[in-house]
Each structure stands twice: as C-alpha cells, then as structure tokens.
From TrEMBL:
GO molecular function list: alpha-galactosidase activity
Top-level taxon: Eukaryota
Function: Hydrolyzes a variety of simple alpha-D-galactoside as well as more complex molecules such as oligosaccharides and polysaccharides.
Location of the Alpha galactosidase C-terminal domain: 338-406
Identification of the protein by name: Alpha-galactosidase
GO biological process, one term: carbohydrate metabolic process
EC number(s) given by UniProt: 3.2.1.22
Origin species: Aspergillus terreus (strain NIH 2624 / FGSC A1156)
Signal peptide from the UniProt entry: 1-21
Record flagged with keyword Glycoprotein: yes
Length: 409
C-alpha cells in the first residue's frame, strides 16, 4: 500500500522544472498527453453498433452543443468493430462501408473542423476482442494508414495475443506471458510516423505485468485493471488499485482507470460523484461512456464540473494518493480508503471518499502531506462550500465524496 507522506510528496513534486523535462524524455517526446486526455468513447453506449460515422459525428456535435469541448473534452473515440472482418489484398484495415460510407478520413476531417480529435481502436493480437482484424504483424502498416487518415488516438487492446495455449484464447491471463514487447512494437510504429501525424497511444492490457512500471516508455496512458463493468464493485476495485500506484503517473503518461460510467443509469448520483471525482484526482483520463443524446442533467453536471476538471488537468500532473491521519484506521486492501491528497500547481487537493460508509470526516491540515501548520482557505468542489482554518470537517453521505482545493489564506 502506497501511503503518501511529506517526504515522498516532496519527491513527487520535484518532477517539476528540470526534473520534469528529464522525465518527459523517457516518454514519447511528442508533446502529447501532458495532461490526462478527455473525451468520449463509443463502446459503453451500444458496443459494436456504435462503431460508426453516425455515432462519431453525433458525439462530436454534442460536444459543442453541451459545452463539453469548452471544458476540455476533446477526443471522439470509436472502439471495436469499426472495420470489415478481413484486411484488403494489400493487408490494410478497411473501414466497414456500411458504417463509414464517407470513409475514415472524411469523418476525421469533419471532427477536426470542429476543433476536436478523432480516435480508433485496435488490438495487439491476431483479432480484436470482437473478432475483427488485429494489428499483430501489421503494426507499421497500420500506423502508416492511421496517420494518413489523420487519426489522433489509438486504443491498443490485448485480445487474441500469444498465450501458453495455442490457438490463443480471447483473453490470456497467464502471468508468465510478457505483454511488453507487443506494446513496444506498436510504440515504435507510431514513433516512425510522428512527423506525419503524432498519435496518442492508450495501452489497454488490463494491468498485466505491472504495466504502470513500464507503460510510460511506450504509451501515453495504460489501463491498471480489468474492465470497468459499470457497477459499483468495479468502481471500488479500480479505485482501490489506483491508491496503490499513484507515483507512476506524470505528464506524458498516466494511470488509466478505464472509461467512465457516469450517465449510464447504473450508479446512484452519489456513486457517480465519487466515481468521477476519484478518477479526476487520480489523474486518470476522463472518457465519457454515456449516450450524450439521453444523458440526465444530474450526470451531465457531474461531468461538467469545471473545478474538478481543473484538478485533473492541473499542469503539475501528479496523482493524488491516500494518507493516514493520526488515529485513523489503516487502509484495507481492495477497499477505497477515505483520505486522499495530492499536490497542485497552486495548492493541494484533499478528498474524503465514503465508499465504505458515510459520516463526519475531519482532518487537521498539518497532517496532510504537502501542508504545514497554519490556516488555509478551502473550497469543496461539488457543493461550492468554502471555509478556512487549520482543519476541515465535513459530512459525507454513503458512497459519496467531498473534494477540497486547499490554498494559503
């Protein structure tokens, strides 16, 4: 369990300045992903049926209509099932003409014309998870094609990859199988086309092989766990994992907690607040997975909380982690711990996460990593409540969260 204290928080903060430039040299050197990417993905809306021109352009127009673009939501990403089931005679991926009557390039151009970016999905194996052509053995060819289309983002999934068994299963969980070479190959392919079109690479291998320890060498973000299945148990599982590894996120490469299930009608409003807020302070990419045509006002308001988005997009790029105040119970593996904190370029973020039960939470600010004794000003970013002093005490309901930006008085 990675508990924040003043010493390691200071060490993380030293990623600024000269040290930050050195850290970035270890990444892709393409100026992408300096903050977590924000956008929308098709999969949670209608799975394969949403992998179309209609859905892509519809989402892009909704970004404008709903004011999402102005808040930083930029990427319109189409997930699995966008291509035909076979490559063409030259070995190229082929957009399904029934889904993309105008072709990928034309759609990407329209989306770019709105000031947005366009993303697609592929797999490191022989096939994608839904049985469409994967990139294994075609990495360089696919990178060149994507660059020629003007694609900005690529999610590289992990289905039908080499495994202990032959033929490979859809998903291989064998710990002895190293996934790193597949993502290194795709990284090299994208690096070779950077002069044509820099492409943001999302590593989606479900947290295998401790990807957070090496993902920054090859991608701009990396999934840290199995899928978010849209239920509360998934939020808890993934949030708990994020608390163990915040130190691996930074400008150019971030822990990816998976797509958001805010607005999908499964979680309560309180759970949606915790889900979104925790993803934001953990510096996860914020990728909407809801139908923007039918999303509720309450869910949309959560996704449009500009103060919480500003925490996620803070230029320092350091993820919040958990800390244990004096007399507080110790963290429990697999549970979301209540006390979180992290440095910002202009303050500190503190959160009380009530995933294991609501109540009155209190902390003396001198016990928060990054803060010293004295009086501070604070603002709770969902309610807008403000205060000042040497401590914060706040009531939080079951499954809800309170997030505070703390600055010097």
């Amino acid at each position: 369990m990675y508990l924040l204290n003043l010493a390691n928080l200071v060490a993380l903060s030293h990623l600024t300045g000269v040290a930050l430039s050195v850290a970035l040299q270890r990444r892709l050197n393409d100026s992408l992903g300096l903050t977590p990417h924000m956008g929308w993905s098709s999969w949670n809306v209608a799975q394969c049926d949403a992998a179309s021109e209609t859905y892509a352009l519809g989402a892009a127009n909704k970004f404008i209509e709903l004011g999402l673009k102005d808040l930083g939501y930029t990427y319109v990403n189409i997930d699995d099932c966008w291509s035909t089931k076979e490559r063409d005679a030259s070995g190229n991926l082929v957009p399904d003409p029934a889904k993309w009557p105008n072709g990928i390039r034309a759609v990407a151009d329209q989306i770019h014309g709105l000031g947005l970016k366009f993303g697609l999905y592929g797999c490191a194996g022989e096939m994608t998870c839904a049985g469409y052509p994967g990139s294994q053995g075609h990495e360089a060819q696919d990178a060149e094609l994507l660059a020629s289309w003007g694609v900005d983002f690529w999610k590289h999934d992990n289905c039908y990859t080499p495994c202990v068994s032959d033929p490979p299963p859809q998903t291989c969980w064998e710990a002895s199988v190293d996934t790193r070479p597949w993502y290194a190959t795709m990284h090299d392919a994208f690096k070779s086309v950077t002069s044509v079109k820099p492409i943001l690479l999302n590593i989606c291998q479900w947290g295998r092989n401790e990807v957070w320890t090496w993902g920054a060498q090859y991608g701009h973000s990396w999934r840290i766990e199995a899928d978010n299945w849209g239920d509360w148990a998934s939020v808890v599982r993934i949030g708990a994992k994020a608390s163990e590894i915040p130190q691996y996120s930074g400008p150019g490469g971030f822990n990816d907690l998976d797509m958001l299930f805010v607005g999908n009608g499964v979680l309560t409003e309180a759970q949606e607040r915790l889900h979104f807020g925790l993803w934001a302070i953990a510096k996860s990419p914020l990728v909407i997975g809801a139908d923007l045509n039918t999303i509720s006002e309450s869910s949309l308001n959560i996704l449009k909380n500009k103060d919480i988005i500003s925490i996620n997009q803070d230029e320092l790029g350091i993820a919040a982690g958990i800390f244990q105040p004096p007399n507080a119970p110790a963290p429990v593996a697999g549970e979301i711990y209540p006390y979180w904190a992290g440095p910002l370029s202009d303050g500190v973020v503190i959160a009380f996460a009530a995933a294991s039960g609501g109540g009155t939470f209190s902390v003396n600010l001198v016990d928060v990593p990054g803060l010293e004794g004295g009086s501070y000003s604070w603002k709770e970013l969902y309610s807008g409540e403000e205060g000042s002093g040497e401590s914060i005490t706040f009531d939080v309901a079951d499954d809800d969260i309170a997030i505070f930006k703390v600055t010097t008085s």
